[in-house]
Amino acid sequence: MKRNWGTKLKTVLLASTVTLFAFSLICYPKQSLEASIRGLNMWWEVVFPSLLPFFIISELLISFGVVSFLGVLLEPL
Questions:
Q1: Nearest-10 crossing angle of helices 29-42, 5-27
Q2: What is the pTM of this model?
Q3: Tens-of-pLDDT digits for all 77 residues of the chain?
């Protein structure tokens, strides 16, 4: 089977990007660790608190059967 040049180019580009990323993590471990800690801290302080109410309410709606009731109610549409 013959691969076209676009697929081969995508594969080479992805492999080189991953290699460059891994090389930069090895060369700059302190900056990588600081950036990952900063990202996790931002996730914990911003993303998690904003999504937690949505997750709780959606689980309650699913467990009480509201979602299936609305599905049956809106099925004719």
A1: 100
A2: 0.58
A3: 566 878 899 999 999 999 999 999 999 999 999 999 999 999 999 999 999 999 999 999 999 999 999 999 999 88
Is the torsion defined by CA of 70, 73, 75, 77 positive or negative?
A: negative
| Whole-number Å distance between alpha carbons of 15 and 7 | 12
Distances (CA, A) of 21 to 7, 30, 51: 21, 15, 30
Burial class (CB in 10 A: 0-12, 13-18, 19+), 32: middle
Contacts of 24 (CB under 8 A, 6+ apart): 32
